[in-house]
Design the sequence.
């Protein structure tokens, strides 16, 4: 038994909560009871309408208004943009993330549309991650706004069971960072993830061992990780609609019918998840891409799109203190065919200028009349920046360009990213 | 075509021409060597469309003619035939090449001679002769610095051009990959004045180098803006040039480096080699701590530990520390033939000049590393 507002907790339910479900200590109704509450340790935390919540935090006048984060195209009607986040107010109109912006704006024309400021969201995400890392080293971020936490064995350190530590972290993030998240607590990663979605926003849901099979039995097979539209169709065709349908069949039978997938299904449908929470890996590459409002085909037009992406990649390389010797250009044709081309540099780089030059040379060979809908550029084979961008004997101008870029960085660090831009 | 030829002679010539042929070819004819009787000799010709070698070799011609056969296969066959063997080759009516030697018989599939691409002649208006020894020096002392970086294709060769140093006209070869630069010169040969600066591709440089050792004492070089030809006694190599602008290298050769370090280059190289054995990482950095009369070489590796060695040197300036990539240091010192090498340094972050003491004809520039 746990009160999520004053953190009062006790194994005996009556000591914390009165007959009406209110906390005896603080009167809050946000109390939580579950027989396994203090023994479960795998959590999935998911921020509530993350991008929108940050924008509202920074611009309180937006509070209560339907808010869509994403690009609305040059005419403001949606173009090819996609909703990155819809605030809860916008969700009431049927808008949701990953929906084409044009459709969202039809559903909710009065919505306020804001361009995403990913750099800002990443800073907020870092701040939240810092708080998580003070709870356990086992934090596995899935994206800027979601992470798995494994708090097994931390009770001895914190003097409180994981559920209390998580509830406390939720309050701390709300207080210190100004956004809220929902918690799913369970004994398996995929169940924790399902749980975090059950009680949104500001939620805390628990799926215990005892009720796992019962909980899953009535749910569609698509709740299982790895079961997307395609796999679901295969399963439906074979007569499996719900997780319970799978659980009724033996593991051997599932493996016979679905091979390796069957093996996974046999475990998952019984609530077993062999994965472990793995702390953040070092990034393998840093990249940025953009989808055009209208397909582009000329070298000049495509080149024009490349520079801001190079700057973005460079900024991230510098921020993460990494560099790389390989530049990768990515193009998607109007028929959605993906093309990647790579170039190896003489030395690892962090500089936008160097990335741009390599990218342009690669682009030159690809821009041969075909129409493209997307361009992206990245740096890979990342290494420490100590060996990056040495003085280049083959390029007498390199040192000057490098110095110019570092000077621009310094100005931006002081006055913001828009304080100075390079003509191109 | 019908002829008899000594295995040793054919093997040597095929050895030269077959190395031009790429292992994998999308155009089948480029895998073949063109064979043609030329005035009582056998002519062998291979090309990769950028580089062409024609070599003639002594043979007993019974019937004039020509054909093309797979170069690598033919080379393998000839290589495996016993020493001292006589080889008989005959192009048959059905377009196959019959090869007989002792009790061995081979029938090779051929392609029509008419399909074999000829490198268009074109004018080569500049011609000069160079001692093979000089050409070897130009190549050996620059080749290691040629870049393999594809994006800067204009660095994938040696920049051959005429220049003047202290009023003396020279023929100079320069190569750089951005980390190090090699600049080597010989007195300007007669006929070279007025030639354009040209970038000779790495592969061409490598092939020419192979031919130098076994050939004549003098090489005739002819060139235009787009092509270069190296003519040895029996071998003529013609190559396209890299179409690009070589960077203005003179601007990266420092002029004010006044800290002079004089080392016995053999002692130095051996010490660098030993000390760098400790470093396992890619950078292979070695630190030079220089003080009056002494140089300490040291390297550290987080995994393996540390290494250091001290050698006596000539040094009179301010004590300093500077780091280099040990592989680059070794590649440069290997090129030095005299007893001692000179390091001209400015500071730990600026390019350092390395040269042979008393030899002005070669100069190397090396970028330091942060250590």
Sequence:
């Amino acid at each position: 038994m746990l009160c999520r507002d004053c953190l009062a907790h006790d194994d005996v339910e009556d000591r914390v909560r009165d007959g009406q479900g209110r906390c005896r200590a603080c009167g809050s109704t946000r109390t939580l009871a579950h027989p396994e509450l203090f023994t479960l340790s795998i959590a999935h935390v998911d921020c509530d309408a993350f991008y929108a919540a940050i924008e509202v935090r920074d611009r309180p006048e937006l509070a209560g208004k339907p808010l869509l984060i994403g690009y609305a195209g040059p005419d403001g009607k949606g173009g090819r943009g996609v909703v990155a986040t819809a605030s809860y107010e916008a969700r009431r109109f049927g808008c949701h993330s990953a929906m084409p912006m044009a459709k969202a704006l039809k559903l909710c024309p009065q919505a306020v549309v804001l361009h995403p400021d990913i750099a800002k969201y990443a800073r907020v995400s870092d701040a939240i991650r810092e708080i998580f890392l003070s709870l356990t080293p086992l934090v596995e971020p899935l994206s800027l706004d979601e992470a798995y936490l494994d708090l097994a064995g931390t009770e001895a350190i914190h003097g409180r069971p994981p559920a209390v530590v998580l509830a406390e972290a939720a309050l701390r993030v709300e207080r210190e960072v100004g956004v809220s998240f929902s918690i799913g607590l369970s004994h398996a990663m995929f169940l924790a993830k399902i749980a975090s979605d059950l009680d949104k926003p500001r939620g805390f849901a628990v799926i215990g061992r005892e009720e796992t099979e019962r909980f899953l039995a009535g749910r569609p097979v698509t709740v299982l990780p790895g079961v997307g539209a395609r796999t679901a169709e295969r399963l439906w065709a074979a007569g499996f609609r719900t997780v319970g349908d799978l659980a009724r069949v033996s593991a051997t039978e599932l493996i016979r019918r679905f091979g390796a997938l069957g093996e996974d299904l046999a475990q998952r449908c019984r609530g077993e998840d062999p994965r472990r929470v793995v702390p953040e890996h070092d990034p393998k590459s840093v990249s940025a891409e953009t989808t055009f409002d209208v397909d582009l085909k000329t070298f000049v037009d495509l080149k024009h799109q490349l520079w801001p992406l190079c700057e973005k990649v460079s900024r991230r390389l510098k921020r993460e203190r990494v560099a790389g010797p390989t530049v990768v250009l990515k193009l998607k044709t109007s028929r959605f065919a993906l093309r990647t081309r790579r170039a190896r540099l003489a030395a690892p780089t962090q500089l936008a200028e160097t990335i741009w030059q390599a990218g342009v040379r690669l682009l030159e060979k690809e821009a041969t009349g075909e129409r493209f809908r997307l361009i992206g550029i990245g740096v890979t084979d990342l290494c420490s920046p100590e060996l990056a961008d040495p003085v280049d004997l083959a390029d007498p101008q390199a040192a000057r360009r490098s110095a110019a870029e570092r000077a621009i960085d310094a100005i931006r660090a002081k006055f913001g990213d828009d304080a100075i831009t390079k003509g191109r | 075509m019908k002829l008899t030829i000594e295995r040793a002679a054919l093997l040597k010539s095929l050895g030269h021409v077959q190395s031009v042929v790429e292992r994998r070819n999308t155009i089948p004819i480029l895998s073949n060597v063109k064979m043609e009787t030329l005035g009582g000799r056998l002519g062998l010709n291979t090309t990769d469309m950028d580089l062409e070698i024609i070599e003639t070799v002594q043979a007993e011609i019974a019937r004039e003619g020509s054909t093309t056969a797979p170069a690598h296969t033919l080379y393998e066959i000839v290589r495996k035939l016993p020493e001292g063997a006589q080889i008989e080759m005959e192009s048959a009516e059905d377009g196959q090449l019959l090869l007989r030697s002792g009790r061995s018989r081979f029938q090779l599939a051929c392609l029509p001679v008419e399909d074999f691409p000829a490198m268009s002649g074109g004018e080569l208006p500049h011609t000069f002769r160079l001692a093979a020894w000089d050409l070897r020096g130009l190549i050996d002392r620059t080749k290691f610095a040629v870049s393999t970086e594809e994006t800067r294709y204009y660095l994938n060769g040696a920049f051959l051009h005429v220049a003047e140093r202290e009023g003396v006209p020279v023929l100079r070869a320069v190569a750089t990959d951005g980390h190090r630069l090699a600049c080597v010169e010989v007195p300007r040969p007669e006929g070279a004045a007025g030639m354009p600066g040209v970038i000779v591709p790495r592969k061409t440089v490598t092939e020419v180098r192979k031919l130098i050792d076994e050939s004549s004492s003098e090489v005739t070089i002819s060139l235009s803006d787009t092509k270069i030809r190296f003519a040895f006694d029996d071998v003529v190599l013609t190559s396209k040039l890299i179409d690009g602008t070589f960077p203005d290298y003179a601007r990266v050769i420092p002029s004010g480096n006044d800290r002079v370090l004089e080392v016995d280059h053999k002692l130095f190289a051996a010490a660098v080699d030993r000390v760098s054995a400790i470093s396992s990482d890619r950078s292979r950095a070695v630190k030079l701590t220089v003080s009056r009369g002494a140089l300490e070489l040291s390297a550290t590796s987080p995994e393996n530990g540390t290494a250091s060695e001290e050698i006596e040197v000539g040094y009179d300036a301010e004590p300093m520390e500077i780091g280099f990539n040990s592989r680059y240091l070794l590649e440069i010192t290997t090129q030095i033939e005299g007893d001692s090498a000179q390091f001209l340094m400015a500071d730990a972050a600026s390019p350092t000049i390395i040269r042979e003491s008393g030899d002005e004809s070669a100069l190397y520039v090396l970028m330091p590393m942060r250590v």
Notes: DSSP finds 16 helices and 14 strands in chain A. Residues 299-320 of chain A form the longest helix (22 residues). Chain A touches chain B at residues 343-347, 357-358, 361-362, 386-387, 390-396 (CB under 8 Å).
